[in-house]
Specification:
GO molecular function: rRNA binding; structural constituent of ribosome
Structural class: alpha/beta
Order of helices and strands: EEHHEHEHEHEH
Pfam family, one: Ribosomal_L4
CATH topology of the largest domain: Ribosomal Protein L4, Chain: A
Distance between the termini: 21 Å
Protein name: Large ribosomal subunit protein uL4
Keywords: Ribonucleoprotein, Ribosomal protein, RNA-binding, rRNA-binding
Shape: elongated
Number of domains: 2
CATH class of the largest domain: Alpha Beta
Number of strands: 6
Family: Belongs to the universal ribosomal protein uL4 family.
Length: 206
């Protein structure tokens, strides 16, 4: 489907035609987000088994004639402070996802923002040279007032630096554009360099 996407520049606003998916598959987006979050998990959680807790292994009381149940060492899982049964151990949570699925998910996420009128392309961030107040002045002129969360994808590091301290803005370099961050913010703002990088990813490898 062809979308008409607004392009903002210091000389005014124009529109750019872009071919993006017409249908959005929520389950496919869920698959990509699940894959992303699994890849980010550190997997460092670790509990001690009964063989690793620092207790004596002596028998805590005689086997018979106490009127109580039979027990061995105090590090058994049944006791408070004892070892853990089937607890977490360090592991890798990441798994592979087909490149076609990853590319389709990214295209659908961007298409969803374009369909909602929440995608804005920027030709130049006039007057933004690394300071937050400069970005706030530009954002006000672009109709971004902080009422919606914004994902800002910009090639210029000065633009990202100017916006990164704002609580309603998430900043990314073009190569970092991903489905999870698109879906967790309400508006998507990209410069033309980021847009071209996005188009190249769709045409090449994810």
């Amino acid at each position: 489907m062809v979308y008409q996407i607004p392009v903002l520049s210091s000389s005014g606003t124009r529109e750019l035609s872009a071919e993006l998916p017409a249908e959005i598959n929520p389950h496919l987006l869920w698959e990509v987000v699940r894959w992303q979050l699994a890849s980010r998990r550190r997997g460092t959680a670790s509990t001690k088994t009964r063989g690793e807790v620092a207790y004596s292994s002596r028998k805590i009381y005689p086997q018979k004639h106490t009127g109580r149940a039979r027990h061995g060492d105090i590090g058994a899982p049944i006791f408070v402070g004892g070892g853990t049964v089937f607890g977490p151990k360090p592991r890798d949570y990441s798994y592979t996802l087909p490149k076609k699925v990853r590319k389709a998910g990214l295209a659908m996420a961007v298409a969803d923002r374009a369909r909602e009128g929440k995608l804005l392309l920027v030709e130049d961030f006039a007057g933004v040279n690394g300071r937050t107040k400069e970005f706030l002045a530009w954002a006000k002129g672009a109709g971004l007032n902080g009422e919606e969360t914004v994902l800002l994808v910009a090639q210029d590091e000065r633009v990202r630096r100017a916006a990164r301290n704002l609580p309603w803005v998430v900043t990314l370099a073009p190569e970092g554009l991903n489905v999870y961050d698109i879906l967790r913010t309400e508006r998507l703002v990209m410069d033309l360099a980021a847009w071209q990088a996005f188009q190249a990813r769709l045409g090449g490898e994810a």
